[in-house]
Design a protein that fits this description.
It is built from 8 helices and 12 strands. Strand 6 and strand 7 form a beta hairpin. The longest helix has 30 residues.
Length: 258
């Protein structure tokens, strides 16, 4: 009977110790979490994330080197761009700059990186920005041509690769919707769309894709659509690269710039 009582007491002590250890772990985990109010946006993360880079602004706040005001709920308040802070936090988590496709706020993000004293991030943003600026100055082209005679067709030049990609996607979409044998009737590469047949008629050059002379559209229609799309996107027609034909509609190439 006495042995049973001793055994029961030992089990109770072990359970209490186990519960005590668990509560201490929970307490430590909770105290490792930090809520930041950045420009009205709340972010919850761990102290180890914010202190990843020594001598940064956030590391200084967490380790008491920098005084930071608190909001009404007791959260650290930082008067900066709350939306852009997600990219700052992702950089701290991942250790590298990862931005969504089409991100255009490089200059603002570079300023935020400098404020938070993250030199590595600041340099990464500036490097990305410089590469985009260089790419934007490089002319990209799209050539729509006959697979047998490249003198027949249309060339579109622009200093914005995304615009060329948009025009290309539009042409492929229209062509695919009207062809049963796609992609056998024409081939698509990075900068060239080659149609199987080009046939000239009184109505202009048609992209003929079937033996019964059905066609996707005329080259003139493609030119008009390219011009209208460019104007809607804020580009201007710099010049027709071949004005000897007397009309933009009859020219062999179009050049757009923003």
């Amino acid at each position: 009977m006495m042995e049973k009582n001793i055994s029961r007491r030992e089990n109770e002590c072990e359970e209490k110790q186990s519960n005590s250890d668990g509560s201490e772990q929970d307490k430590d985990y909770k105290t490792s979490l930090v809520t930041l109010n950045v420009g009205g946006y709340l972010y919850i993360t761990q102290k180890q994330t914010l202190t990843r880079y020594p001598d940064s602004f956030l590391e200084g706040i967490i380790n008491g080197k920098i005084m930071c005001p608190c909001d009404a709920d007791g959260h650290y308040f930082i008067d900066r761009d709350g939306l852009l802070f997600r990219h700052i936090l992702n950089f701290l988590r991942n250790g590298e700059l990862l931005l969504p496709e089409g991100f255009r706020e490089n200059q603002l993000l570079a300023q935020e990186a400098e404020f938070f004293q993250l030199k590595v991030l600041s340099e990464a943003v500036k490097s990305r920005w410089e590469k985009e600026q260089l790419a934007s100055r490089e002319t990209t082209f799209l050539e729509i041509t006959d697979s047998h005679d490249r003198s027949q067709g249309l060339r579109i030049f622009c200093n914005a690769p995304d615009f060329i990609a948009k025009i290309k996607a539009r042409i492929v979409l229209v062509s695919k919707s009207r062809l049963d044998g796609f992609p056998e009737e024409f081939s698509v590469s990075s900068n060239i769309i080659q149609f199987k047949y080009f046939i000239k008629s009184e109505n202009g050059t048609r992209l003929v894709l079937k033996e019964d002379n059905t066609f996707v559209c005329t080259l003139e229609t493609l030119k008009f659509e390219a011009i209208m799309t460019a104007l809607k996107c804020g580009f201007r027609l710099l010049t027709s690269l071949d004005c000897s034909k007397g009309s933009i509609v009859h020219s062999d190439a179009l050049h757009f710039i923003k």
